[in-house]
Automatic annotation (TrEMBL):
The FAD-binding domain, residue ranges: 156-338
Protein's UniProt keywords contain Oxidoreductase: yes
Keyword field: FAD, Flavoprotein, Membrane, Oxidoreductase, Transmembrane, Transmembrane helix
Gene Ontology BP, a term: secondary metabolite biosynthetic process
Residue ranges of the TM segments: 12-31
Protein name: FAD-binding domain-containing protein
Length: 430
């Protein structure tokens, strides 16, 4: 039925999950006059704490959704101490902490304030300040969604993370892509007091981001907490299955990490030696084996890790959530404005908008999952140890993520939706 002109209709969006994806989407929609209710199963926004780095594409997408999101990020971001991100051979090279670069594989210029990190919980706290309290319901765990048909203006967006319930409802519980898979890597994460780290590693190795490459394992180090701590993420290849069906974390020991890095060069072994005796072990799951063939079913749509969970080897998963939000916010804004005068039904407008979203986001987000798996393997020499090949692979892949033109994505998204609308107009005429 055509829409009534005098109703001044407003779109209602139910967001499931209040992580980075859900929070940025809520802010963007609220600012565009769209009704939002965000349902989060935890009792607050910021229960999970971890470090997150944002690449330049993510910062650009924040600005497109709402410049205040970018302000919130800058408020909590920790500036890099140097402008470089360095990948080194930590396995065969004679590592030197004196600044000589015989082990250098690849050096990336981060530019002024590029790839800054923040604490996830702190960023979410800042985002929460931009969402009116009445738009959020905590302690709400989504189990199912019923299509009753009475509210044609309602959209449900699944932002419920890697083990998304909404993904199961969109794809069907029996669909293999409804569940993430083990990437056969896990990570030990730890923080080292900076004075101790400098004593062993020297100034140069502790002042900026280093990726330590080698056979069967790799480690990322970077300064956090205003340079008072060195953050260590030590990844280990694991041919076994992850033994815990419900949990993605377990406890590990330093000895296990020492064993995994025992063939590495002295500096990397020294980093591992500085870790605490008891360590958290994080299983790296992703959607690589079974990517979702679509992110949409009816008026349900997936965003962020719920749609495409990536391993963390590019440090770009959360950035991809923000790109998704920029596309979806723009489309729902167009639906909202079209609703005021369109001859089409609300269901038709939403169908076109969500099909556009699917088309615009599917390839790039699937590619991120693929490339992230690949570089994780590359860092552990599963594709050979040739430094020239490794540096070439890192270079083009990182550029493709970092240099993505968000304005262009928004323009193409709008164009795609408008074309679909014209086709529908034509269908009505004939
Ligand atoms: C070790 C590691 C390091 C990483 N480093 C980076 C990095 O440096 N840069 C980067 O960009 N990305 C990084 N990532 C990826 C990034 O953390 C994720 O891509 C991002 O946090 C996903 O956000 P999200 O909002 O989609 O999901 P989540 O953050 O998982 O949020 C989902 C929310 O939904 C809620 N929820 C779940 N189920 C339900 C339900 N049924 N009902 C209601 N609520 C529900 C949860 O409580 C949670 O609050 C890293 C990931 C890992 C594992």
């Amino acid at each position: 039925m055509p829409f009534m002109l005098d109703e001044q209709p407003t779109l209602n969006v139910a967001i499931v999950g209040g992580g980075i994806a859900g929070a940025v989407l809520a802010i963007g929609l609220i600012n565009r006059g769209i009704n939002v209710k965000l349902y989060e199963r935890a009792r607050d926004f910021s229960e999970v704490g971890a470090g997150l780095g944002f690449t330049p594409n993510a910062e650009w997408a924040m600005k497109v959704i709402d410049p205040l999101i970018h302000v919130a990020f800058k408020k909590v971001a920790v500036q890099n101490s140097t402008d470089w991100f360095t990948w080194i051979d930590s396995y065969t090279a004679n590592e030197a902490t004196d600044g000589s670069n015989d082990e250098l594989i690849y050096n990336m210029y981060l530019g002024e304030r590029g790839f800054e990190g923040c604490h996830r919980a702190q960023f979410l706290d800042e985002l929460a300040k931009l969402i009116p309290r009445q738009c959020v319901e905590f302690r709400k765990n989504l189990r199912t969604i019923e299509e009753r048909g009475e509210d044609q203006k309602m959209v449900v967006v699944g932002c419920d993370g890697i083990r998304s319930r909404v993904r199961q409802l969109v794809l069907g519980e029996d669909h293999p892509a409804a569940y993430p898979g083990y990437s056969h890597k896990y990570a030990f994460r730890g923080l080292i007091p900076m004075e101790k780290a400098v004593e062993v590693l020297g100034e140069k190795r502790t002042a900026s981001r280093f990726m330590h490459l080698g056979q069967g394992a790799h480690a990322l180090t970077f300064p956090v907490a205003g340079g008072t701590l060195l953050n260590v993420v030590a990844f280990v290849n694991d041919p076994e299955e992850w033994p815990h069906s419900e949990k993605l974390t377990s406890t590990g020991t330093k000895q296990e990490a020492v064993n995994a890095f025992k063939h590495f060069a002295p500096t990397t072994r020294a980093i591992i030696d500085l870790l605490p005796e008891k360590l958290d072990r994080w299983a790296i799951f992703d959607t690589f084996d079974n990517p979702a063939p679509t992110y949409v079913k009816g008026r349900m749509v997936l965003m962020g890790d719920a749609a495409h969970a990536s391993s963390p080897h590019h440090g770009a998963g959360a950035g991809m959530c923000i790109e998704d939000a920029a596309a979806l916010v723009g489309l729902l804004q167009m639906v909202q404005s079209e609703m005021q005068h369109s001859k089409h039904t609300m269901s038709d407008l939403l169908r076109l908008a969500l099909a556009t979203y699917d088309q615009v986001r599917l390839d790039r987000s699937h590619w991120l999952v693929e490339t992230s798996r690949y570089v994780g393997e590359l860092y552990e020499w599963q594709h050979g140890s040739d430094p020239v090949k490794i540096s070439r692979e890192i270079d083009w892949r990182a550029r493709k993520i970092w240099a993505y033109n968000i304005e262009e994505m928004s323009r193409l998204t709008k164009e795609n939706f408008t074309r679909r609308l014209w086709k529908l107009d034509e269908a009505l005429l004939y």
